[in-house]
Design goal:
The protein is α+β, with helices and mostly antiparallel strands. It is built from 16 helices and 48 strands.
C-alpha cells in the first residue's frame, strides 16, 4: 500500500481510560514512501466490541467515506457514549489517487463516570488533629471474594490528598501524587485503572495509602491546610462477570485503617519512614488485622466540589540516574553527585542493625566540598529519614514527597556505600518527548539540555516555578513565556488543558486571571496585603489568552479555544475596563521580573500585553467564527496601538523606560507603525551594544528578544547574544557547570558568589524560553496560523553565529518534521522531512544552487527564496557568498 496508518489517538492519548468528553476527538498519523502523499478521504468505525470491527461493522458509529484531508482532532459523531463503557475503533483512509488503505489496527478507549451520582462510595479516612503539623500516613484495606469468572474489572479512585492503591499486593498503576493538584474546593480529578489482570478467583484485597499532599500538607509560602485538614479516600471497583452480572466494591466504613511506617510524608518537609513498623502482607488477602489493632475507617463529610476524570498526563518515574561521584565528608557522612540537577527522590539501598537512623538530605549546589547549599530552601526541608528494620539489604524511598537536587548527603550509614547505593528517581508529569535539537557548539547543546531538564523538573501536575524551596507554585507568567518552548520539547497539550482549568477556576468575578494556579490561598493572601499587591499582573494574567492560542497553534486544538472563550473575553474586557484612555496602570508587582539593571515601566509593559491579549483574542474569535467579536477586538487592538505610541513614544522614537524589553515588546507585539519601527530597531541594537553586547531582559522580555532581533534583520546580533558566555548571558551559567536553567541571571557569579538566598532557585525554566527561538528560527521549524498544528508548516532556517550545523526534529500531530542544515565554506545545505498529509513552505537563504524535484518556487521574500513542497524528504543547497 502507498499509505499506512499508525499512532491512533483519542483526545491526544493512546488507548485512554476514563474519558469524560461526550464527543472525543480521533487522530492518526500516516506514513508513505511516496512524495507529496496526502489523504483524500477517511472512514472511522467505532464499536462496542472488537468482534464488530473485525466484521467491518461499527454499531456505534460508521462515518462512511468522508472526503477530507483531516486526520487530526476529528470529533465523534455517533450514538451517545455510555458511562464506564469500553469501546474500540479503527480508521481507513484513501490516498491522493483515491486508493484505499488497509484498515488501521484496532485501538480502544473507555469512558469515565459521566454523572456525579454514579459515585456510590463514601469518603473515608481518619479525622486529623489540626494541631498536628505532620500527621502520619494512613493505611486502608478491604477484603472481598470473587466466585465466578471475571470479564472486566475497573477501579475508579481519588483522594483529598494523595494516594497509592494496591490490589492483592500489587501496586495499581504507575502514577505518583494522584489525583494531582487542583483547587479542591472546585474540582478534584479521579483516576481510572483497568485491573482485570489483578483480580483473582477467591479472596482478594484492596489497599490504599493516604497522604496529605497539596490538600492539607505544606503548600508554597502559605503554610498547610490550604484546602482541608483530614485527607480522605474515595474508591469503587466495578466488576463485570462473564455471565453478565455486575458488582461494586466501594469505599465505606467496612474498610479498616491503621497508621504505620510512614510517620509523615509532606511535599515540602520530606518523609520519616520507620521500616520496623511495616506489616508484611497488609495489602493481601488473609492478613490478620486483629494482631495489629486495625479499626474501621471513619466516614468523612461528602465532597462539595466536582469530580472530573484526570485530564493531564500522570506523574511518573521517567528515568533513573546513578551518581557520578561519592565521597566521605569530615563529619563522616557521605555525599553523592548525581551529575544532573533533577527532581524526584533518592532510592537508597543499605543495611544495618534494626533501629539505625538514616538521613538523606538534598541540595542543588554545594557551598564547599563538604557542605550542601540549603539556605535557599527557606522553610522547606528536603530531608528524608529512615529507621532500618535490620533484616539485610533494605531498599528505601519516600512516598508522597519530592525534592529538587543534584547533590545528596547521607548520614547514619553503618557501612561504606558505593555508587550503586543511590539511585536518583526522575519524576515529572509524563508529557511525551516531541522535539530535539543538536548543534555544532557543545555549549549550546548543554544549554538545550538545561532547558529540557528545567521543564522536566517543574512540570509536575502544574507548571511550577521551582521544585526545591517552599514555593513550587504554578506561576502563570512563567508558564506563558515558556509554553512555546515547552510545546516543542514535549507534548504538553493535555498538561496545559488541565492548567487552563486551574486558571479559570481561579479567575475573579471581575475577570482577572490569577498570578498562580491552582490558587492555594494566594488570592486570599493578596487581599489581606492589598496595600502591597495589585489586583492583576500583566504578563501573568495574559497567560489565560496566550496559552490557549499556543495550544491551538501547535496542536490544532479548537476545543481549548471554545472551552475558554468566555474566560478570555472577560479578561480582555477587564483590562479595558481597568485602563485610562486604553493605557493600563503601573501597579503591577512583577513587571519584567529579574531583569538586570533595566527597570521596564509597568504601565508600558502592561499596555503592551493588553494589546497582545486583545490581538490574540481577535484572532481566536475569527477562528471560531465569532465575526462580530473578531472585528470589534481587532479594532480595539488598533486603538491600543495608537495609545501606546501616543503615551510612551517621543518624537525621537524613544519609548518610555528605554530598556531592551520595551523595544522588544513593541516590535514583537506589532505596536509600532512601519515608519517608527526602524528607529526602535536601531535603539534596541544600541542598548545591547552599550551594555557590552549583553542582554538585560527579565522573564517577560527574554522570550521575545531573539525573535524580535531576527525578524528585524539583526540575526547576527541574536547569535552574538546566544553565544555570549560572560555575565549576564545564557551560557554564563553553562560555563559554570549548570545543568538546568537558573531563576536569576546572577544566581551565582564569580564576582559575588551566591545571590540572596531568599529567592535563589537553580531550577527555574523561565529564562529558558530562548528554546522557542532555537526551534522556530535557528532550526526554522514553525507553524502556520492559517493551517495550525503543522498541517502546513514553515521551514525557515536562519544560519549564523559560530554554528556550522543544526539538526532538529519535531514530532507533530501529523508525524515527524525534520530540519537539518550545514554551512561549509559559504555553501548552505538543508535537509528536511515533511510528514504525510502536510505541505511545507521552505525559505532558502542565499542564492539557490540545488533545488530538489517537486519543489515549486513561489518567489523571494526578505532575501530568502520561497518554495512549497508536499510530504517527503528534500535536500536544498544554496550559496551564502555575496
Amino acid at each position: 500500500m502507498s499509505i499506512v496508518i499508525s499512532r491512533l489517538r483519542v483526545d491526544s492519548m493512546e488507548q485512554p481510560l476514563g474519558l469524560e468528553t461526550r464527543q472525543p476527538r480521533f487522530s492518526w498519523v500516516l506514513d508513505s514512501n511516496r512524495r507529496s502523499e496526502r489523504q483524500s478521504a477517511y472512514r472511522i468505525m467505532v464499536a462496542s466490541a472488537v468482534e464488530g470491527l473485525q466484521q467491518d461493522t461499527g454499531d456505534l458509529w460508521d462515518s462512511g467515506k468522508i472526503t477530507s484531508d483531516r486526520s487530526v482532532q476529528i470529533r465523534y459523531a455517533g450514538a451517545p457514549l455510555q458511562s464506564a463503557a469500553a469501546y474500540c475503533w479503527k480508521v481507513q483512509v484513501w490516498d491522493r489517487d483515491g486508493v484505499p488503505s488497509d484498515w488501521s489496527p484496532v485501538a480502544s478507549f473507555s469512558m469515565g463516570l459521566l454523572g456525579q451520582d454514579e459515585w456510590k462510595g463514601e469518603w473515608i479516612g481518619k479525622t486529623v488533629d489540626p494541631a498536628l503539623e505532620l500527621p502520619p500516613g494512613l493505611y486502608l484495606r478491604k477484603e472481598f471474594a470473587i466466585d465466578r469468572p471475571i470479564k472486566r474489572a475497573v477501579l475508579y479512585s481519588t483522594a483529598l490528598g494523595v494516594y497509592e492503591m494496591y490490589l492483592n499486593g500489587s501496586r495499581v498503576g504507575d502514577h505518583y501524587f494522584a489525583p494531582g493538584w487542583t483547587d479542591y474546593a472546585i474540582r478534584t480529578q479521579y483516576q481510572t485503572y483497568d485491573v482485570t489482570g489483578l483480580v483473582q478467583a477467591g479472596g482478594n484485597a484492596l489497599g490504599a495509602v493516604l497522604g496529605t499532599g497539596w490538600y492539607s500538607g505544606h503548600v508554597g509560602m502559605m503554610g498547610r491546610h490550604r484546602y482541608g485538614i483530614s485527607p480522605a479516600l474515595l474508591s469503587q471497583l466495578q466488576l463485570e462477570y462473564e455471565d453478565g452480572t455486575k458488582d461494586l466494591i466501594s469505599s465505606d466504613r467496612s474498610w479498616t485503617m491503621n497508621s504505620g511506617p510512614i510517620q509523615y510524608s509532606d511535599m515540602l518537609m520530606g518523609e520519616w519512614y520507620d521500616a520496623g513498623l511495616e506489616w508484611p502482607g497488609w495489602n493481601e488477602p488473609g492478613f490478620d488485622e486483629s494482631a495489629h489493632r486495625w479499626q474501621h475507617a471513619e466516614q468523612l463529610p461528602r465532597y462539595g466540589g466536582k469530580l472530573v476524570s484526570q485530564i493531564d498526563p500522570p506523574v511518573r518515574i521517567t528515568e533513573s540516574l546513578k551518581p557520578v561521584k561519592v565521597w566521605r565528608s569530615e563529619r563522616g557522612s557521605y555525599l553523592f553527585d548525581l551529575g544532573q540537577n533533577m527532581v524526584g527522590w533518592v532510592k537508597l539501598q543499605t543495611s544495618g542493625p534494626a533501629g539505625t537512623r538514616i538521613t538523606v538530605r538534598h541540595a542543588e549546589m554545594l557551598e564547599d566540598d563538604d557542605n550542601l547549599y540549603t539556605v535557599n530552601l527557606r522553610k522547606a526541608e528536603q530531608k528524608d529519614t529512615y529507621i532500618l528494620k535490620g533484616n539485610g539489604l533494605e531498599t528505601l524511598e519516600p512516598h508522597f514527597t519530592f525534592h529538587g537536587f543534584r547533590y545528596v548527603e547521607v548520614e547514619g550509614l553503618t557501612e561504606e556505600p558505593t555508587l550503586e547505593s543511590v539511585t536518583g528517581q526522575v519524576v515529572h508529569s509524563d508529557t511525551p518527548h516531541s522535539g530535539s535539537i543538536e548543534t555544532s557548539d557543545p555549549m549550546i547543546n548543554q544549554l538545550i539540555s538545561n532547558i529540557r531538564w528545567g521543564q522536566r523538573g517543574n512540570y509536575l501536575s502544574v507548571p511550577t516555578d521551582c521544585p526545591q524551596r517552599d514555593e513550587r507554585l504554578g506561576w502563570t507568567g512563567d508558564a506563558q513565556i515558556f509554553i512555546r518552548t515547552a510545546s516543542y520539547n514535549m507534548d504538553v497539550s493535555r498538561f496545559f488543558t488541565k492548567f487552563m482549568a486551574d486558571m479559570t477556576d481561579a479567575q475573579t468575578e471581575a475577570g482577572a486571571f490569577p498570578d498562580v494556579a491552582p490558587d492555594a490561598g494566594w488570592f486570599e493572601w493578596k487581599q489581606e496585603h492589598v496595600q502591597w499587591f495589585a489586583p492583576d499582573n500583566s504578563g501573568w494574567g495574559d497567560a489565560g489568552v496566550i496559552i490557549p492560542w499556543t495550544l491551538y497553534l501547535m496542536y490544532e486544538d479548537r476545543s481549548i479555544l471554545e472551552e475558554n472563550y468566555d474566560a478570555m473575553k472577560r479578561w480582555v474586557d477587564y483590562l479595558k475596563a481597568n485602563s485610562s484612555r486604553l493605557v493600563r496602570p503601573d501597579y503591577a508587582n512583577y513587571g519584567d521580573w529579574l531583569s538586570i539593571n533595566a527597570d521596564t515601566p509597568n504601565d508600558v509593559l502592561a499596555t503592551a500585553y493588553f494589546a497582545y491579549s486583545t490581538l490574540l483574542f481577535s484572532r481566536i474569535a475569527s477562528v471560531l467564527g465569532c465575526e462580530e467579536d473578531a472585528r470589534s477586538y481587532s479594532e480595539l487592538y488598533g486603538r491600543i496601538r495608537e495609545a501606546f505610541v501616543r503615551e510612551f513614544m517621543d518624537e525621537n522614537g524613544i519609548i518610555k523606560g528605554d530598556t531592551q524589553t520595551v523595544y522588544v515588546l513593541a516590535l514583537y507585539f506589532g505596536l509600532l507603525p512601519d515608519d517608527q519601527k526602524s528607529s526602535a530597531i536601531r535603539r534596541l541594537e544600541q542598548l545591547i551594544q552599550s551594555n557590552g553586547g549583553h542582554l538585560s531582559t527579565g522573564f517577560l522580555g527574554v522570550g521575545y528578544l531573539l525573535p524580535a532581533l531576527t525578524e528585524n534583520g539583526l540575526e547576527e546580533l541574536a547569535y552574538d547574544l546566544l553565544h555570549k558566555d560572560t555575565f549576564p548571558s545564557w551560557l554564563y551559567s553553562v560555563k559554570h557547570g549548570a545543568t538546568t536553567i537558573w531563576e536569576r541571571w546572577d544566581g551565582w557569579t564569580d564576582h559575588s558568589g551566591f545571590q540572596n538566598p531568599g529567592m535563589n532557585s537553580f531550577n527555574h525554566y523561565s529564562l529558558g524560553s530562548v528554546g522557542e527561538w532555537m526551534y522556530r528560527y535557528m532550526a526554522g521549524i514553525d507553524a502556520d496560523p492559517e493551517q495550525p498544528g503543522f498541517k502546513h508548516l514553515v521551514i525557515k532556517p536562519c544560519p549564523g553565529g559560530k554554528l556550522t550545523y543544526v539538526k532538529a526534529q519535531y514530532e507533530s500531530s501529523y508525524g515527524t518534521i525534520g530540519s537539518s542544515w550545514r554551512v561549509d565554506n559559504g555553501r548552505f545545505a538543508l535537509s528536511i522531512t515533511v510528514p504525510v498529509n502536510t505541505t511545507a513552505a521552505v525559505h532558502l537563504p542565499g542564492q539557490p544552487v540545488q533545488v530538489p524535484e517537486g519543489a515549486e518556487k513561489l518567489g523571494e521574500e526578505q532575501g530568502k527564496h520561497r518554495y512549497v513542497v508536499g510530504s517527503g524528504q528534500y535536500e536544498f543547497v544554496s550559496s551564502l557568498n555575496k
